[in-house]
Amino acid sequence: MAQIVLDYRSRPKRRRNRNRWRPLGIGAAALFIVAAYWLGRPRPPLLVSSTTPVTPVKQIDPLLELEEQCRSYQPSGSAPVYIDPARSADDYIRRNPRSIRITDSGVIDPRSYSADAYIRSDPRFIRFRDSDGNITEVNFRMIGDVIYRPIPPWSQYLQANSIPGGDCDHALLFLHERCAKGGAARLVAVELSTGCTSREQLWFSVINSDRIDQTQGVRRDFCNLRDLVDPLYVARFFEGEADPSDASHFTIRFIRVRLGAYVSAYARQATDESAILDGWLLSDDHVQLKVRDEKRVP
C-alpha cells in the first residue's frame, strides 16, 4: 500500500511577466540620458553679437520719391523754358532796338523766324502741337511757332499719376514747395498752356502730400495770361525761383517786346523788356500772380 506524504509548506510564488517590464525600463533610462545630454549641451554662438537693433529696410514709394524731387527741385538758372522765336530774334541778331515786321492787324508776324535753329541747338525743346511749325495751314490761333522745354521730374510725376496728356503742350514755369503763412507745405507748379484759342493760360497745381486722391490738386485752377500781360508780345519765359526769405513767395522772369516807332510801312522798332511775375501761395491753396519790375534788356 502506497504511503502518502503530506507537505504543509507554502507553495513557491510564480514569477509572472517579469520580462515584460524590462524593455520599458530600458527605454525610460535611454530617454533620461538623452534629455540630460540635450539640456547640458553647450549653446551655439549667436549670429549677431551686437546689441544695436537692426533697422528694417524701408520700402520707398516711387510716387512719393518723385513728389519729393519736385518739392526740392532747383531751376537751371538762365535757361528759358518757353520761347517764341518770332519775338526772340535778338538771340541771333545782336542789335537793340531792332526792326520787326508787323501785319495789317498790327501784331508781330509769327512767321518772321523759325524754331528749328533753337531745336537744333538744344534738342530738349519741342514744339506745341498746334504751333505754326506743326500746322501747314494758316494757324487761326495765332500762337506762332512756339517751343518749350519739358522738366523731367514734373513730367515723370504727371505720368506716374496718369494725368491725361501729361505735360504735353504745358510749359512748366515754376516747381517747388511753398507754404502759406499759418498753413502746411504744398507742392506748387505753374504751367503755361496753349489749350484755348488765342488765349494762353496759366495753370496752377497745389498738391497736399496728405491727399487721398493722387490727382487731387493737379491743375486745380487757371487764369488767362492776357489778364497779366499781352501774350502776343511775350518772347521768353524762364524757370521760376522760390524766395528763400518768404516761404509763400516765388518769382518767374520773362522777356516781352515793347514796340516803338515805325521805320517803314510794315516795320517798327522794338526793344526787349525784362519783367517778373510775382507769385504767392495763399492760405486757401490758391495762387496769386502780379507783374512787376519792367526794364529794358541791355
Helix content: 10-25%
Helix tally equals: 4
Strand content: 25-35%
Radius of gyration over all CA atoms, rounded = 42 Å
Q: What would you call the shape?
A: rod-shaped
Distance between the termini: 164 Å
State the total count of DSSP E strands: 13
pLDDT average, as an integer?
Answer: 77
**Largest sheet geometry:** 9 strands, antiparallel
- What is the H/E order? HHEEHEEHEEEEEEEEE
Stretches where pLDDT is under 50 for at least 5 consecutive residues are 90-96
Structural class: alpha+beta
SSE layout and pairing:
Elements: H1 22-40, H2 62-71, E1 80-83, E2 98-101, H3 116-121, E3 126-127, E4 147-148, H4 152-160, E5 170-179, E6 185-193, E7 201-207, E8 221-224, E9 234-238, E10 241-242, E11 249-264, E12 267-281, E13 287-296
Antiparallel strand pairs: 1-4, 1-9, 2-12, 3-4, 5-6, 6-7, 7-8, 9-11, 10-11, 11-12, 12-13
Give your account of this protein's structure.
It contains four helices and 13 strands. With 298 residues, it is α+β, with helices and mostly antiparallel strands. The strands form two sheets. Strands 1, 2, 3, 4, 9, 10, 11, 12 and 13 form a nine-stranded antiparallel beta sheet that branches. α2 packs antiparallel against α4 (152-160). The longest helix is centred in the first third of the chain and has 19 residues, at 22-40. The chain starts with 21 loop residues before the first helix and ends with a strand.
